[in-house]
């Protein structure tokens, strides 16, 4: 290696070191100035890489697309009702694209953080997403705590049935979904696995299921039995001949072959 090449190589190494040092300083400064909300997000990032407890490891293969960190939160009784949407099964690519946001540092680097909690719009216009996530939650609860709390899953199933019944009468996004999430969190705070009943109380129903949030009344379906009579009336109005023996409209009763 010539002296010029060696000098160029050493210069590149020094520039790379300076660049890495600059990025480290920028990231440290970003962490120092980060709001408290982002600090919580960083704790969640650390939780993703924590070794799951032995009780949780069998569930990882049972629920593909659901992270071990979420299953661990269920096991540790830390999962909030609004976090149920994170139980929606996704591919690894979808999780990486949808659940992370990247913030640029002043030096041009990027630091990845998890997104904040989803809004009600992320749950969709009907109970489909909530139901799927809640069933996954029930399956995990049953596996982890079914022996110790045998009433937990049946009680939660009755709660889910009640929520789906409400969705037949009231708007999902504006009434039933907020009720489901808030009442579920209320039970979580009390200790949902040992509660005797998961049914929504009158206080919560009155707060969320208001009259102005009811769905429009559905018109009754037409009876199939009325169609032949309507068709016969239509033929009669068009002065068509209808056989009273076989019901066909191309001949009269006197010439009906079925009569013979």
Automatic annotation (TrEMBL):
<protein>
    <submittedName>
        <fullName>Uncharacterized protein</fullName>
    </submittedName>
</protein>
<feature type="region of interest" description="Disordered">
    <location>
        <begin position="32"/>
        <end position="56"/>
    </location>
</feature>
<feature type="region of interest" description="Disordered">
    <location>
        <begin position="214"/>
        <end position="242"/>
    </location>
</feature>
């Amino acid at each position: 290696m010539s002296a010029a090449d060696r000098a160029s190589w050493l210069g590149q190494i020094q520039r790379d070191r300076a660049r890495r040092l600059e990025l480290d300083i920028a990231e440290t400064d970003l962490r120092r100035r980060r709001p408290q909300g982002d600090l919580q997000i960083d704790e969640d990032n650390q939780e993703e890489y924590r070794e799951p407890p032995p009780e949780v490891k069998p569930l990882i293969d049972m629920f593909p697309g659901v992270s071990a960190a979420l299953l661990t939160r269920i096991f540790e009784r830390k999962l909030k009702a609004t976090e149920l949407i994170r139980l929606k099964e996704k591919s690894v690519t979808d999780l990486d694209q949808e659940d992370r946001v990247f913030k640029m540092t002043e030096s041009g680097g990027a630091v990845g953080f998890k997104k904040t909690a989803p809004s009600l719009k992320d749950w969709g216009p009907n109970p489909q997403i909530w139901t799927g996530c809640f069933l996954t939650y029930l399956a995990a609860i049953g596996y982890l705590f079914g022996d110790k709390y045998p009433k937990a899953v049946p009680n939660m199933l009755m709660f889910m049935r009640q929520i789906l019944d409400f969705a037949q009468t009231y708007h999902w996004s504006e009434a039933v979904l907020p009720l489901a999430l808030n009442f579920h969190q209320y039970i979580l705070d009390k200790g949902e696995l040992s509660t005797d009943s998961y049914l929504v109380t009158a206080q919560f129903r009155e707060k969320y299921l208001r009259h102005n949030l009811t769905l429009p009344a559905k018109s009754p379906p037409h009876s199939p039995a009325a169609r032949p009579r309507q068709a016969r009336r239509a033929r009669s109005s068009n002065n068509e001949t209808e056989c009273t023996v076989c019901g066909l409209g191309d001949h009269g009763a006197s010439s009906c072959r079925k009569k013979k």
